[in-house]
Specification:
Blueprint lengths: L2 H12 L1 H4 L13 H25 L11 H35 L5 H6 L10 H16 L1 H10 L4 H19 L5 H23 L9 H26 L6 H26 L8 H7 L8
């Protein structure tokens, strides 16, 4: 094996901090319910306060200049998402190799990715990267501030989505929820592409001739729906999946996001003669992401 590949594999899946990771109040920052509710409440309150202050202090609707910060944020999120994708992919392969003896008579590797065995604990490689994904959700929230400063609008769908996704990623860890590995793989792959595209356009390079971000979100939601059906079938056919209660809660939230997105997509393509442009609708609902 190439030395560079060996080094990357070590730091992404075999480092002692990754292998020995354990989700707990004493070992993991941000792992308490009080921290979750406090941080989300602060995010909502600060976003609302910033919007109100701008409305009171700046009468004009001109955007606040942000310089290179949105582009740097997009580049950083693209790199972080790609790193989490590579890390959880390598870690999943390692976990399957090392633990297949325990569940191989009842599950295939794909079934394991969809349905953790009952009694699974939030420790080890894949949960380390699930924890990294949870922490990255707080960096996603910065886009809300950029939206408020640039468009001078408080987009409630964006606030709802970021709050829900942060809560959901917390539940993945707290209840060792099944399906989170595939969810993170799909989400981080799309995020790395979408944020890379946003960086590309932010530095002045030409964008796609079609709604690129929206189409990526359609693919993400489609994969999500198919996998949810797979989890439900395995739960009843294979004797149960770990964390199914949290999965049901996540599915309800996912249904809400899906309905919002379908409504948005129909309005964009089947406006029935209305003169609302695609750009205007995209500004109205700029952040529809997947909930798992």
């Amino acid at each position: 094996m190439d030395p560079m590949i060996q080094t990357l594999t070590y730091y992404l899946s075999n480092h002692p901090s990754i292998v020995t990771f354990r989700w707990s109040v004493t070992q993991s920052w941000g792992s308490t319910w009080s921290f979750l509710f406090t941080s989300i409440s602060f995010y909502l309150a600060f976003s609302t306060l910033l919007h109100l202050l701008l409305s009171l202090l700046l009468r004009s609707r001109r955007p606040v200049p942000l310089g290179p910060f949105p582009a740097l944020h997009s580049l950083s999120m693209s790199v972080i998402s790609a790193t989490i994708f590579a890390g959880i992919l390598l870690s999943s392969a390692a976990e399957i190799r090392e633990t297949a003896w325990f569940w191989r008579r009842s599950k295939t590797p794909l079934q394991w990715l969809l349905c953790f065995p009952l009694g699974t604990r939030p420790s080890g490689r894949v949960f380390f990267w699930s924890y990294m994904y949870y922490l990255s959700r707080f960096l996603h929230m910065l886009r809300t501030l950029f939206t408020i400063l640039r468009s001078r609008k408080l987009v409630y769908a964006q606030l709802f989505n970021n709050s829900v996704m942060t809560c959901v990623s917390f539940l993945w860890l707290e209840f060792s929820q099944s399906f989170q590995v595939l969810a993170i793989l799909c989400a981080t792959l799309v995020y790395s592409v979408v944020y890379g595209y946003r960086f590309w356009t932010a530095i002045g390079l030409p964008g796609a001739c079609f709604p690129f971000v929206v189409n990526c979100q359609i693919v993400l939601l489609g994969c999500n729906l198919v996998c949810h059906i797979g989890v439900l079938m395995l739960h009843f056919m294979k004797g149960g999946c770990n964390g199914i209660g949290a999965w049901v809660f996540n599915s309800v939230l996912n249904g809400v996001i899906l309905l919002l997105f379908v409504n948005f997509y129909v309005r964009m393509h089947l406006g029935k003669g209305k003169k609302t442009s695609t750009a205007a609708i995209l500004r109205e609902l700029p952040e529809v992401e997947k909930v798992n």
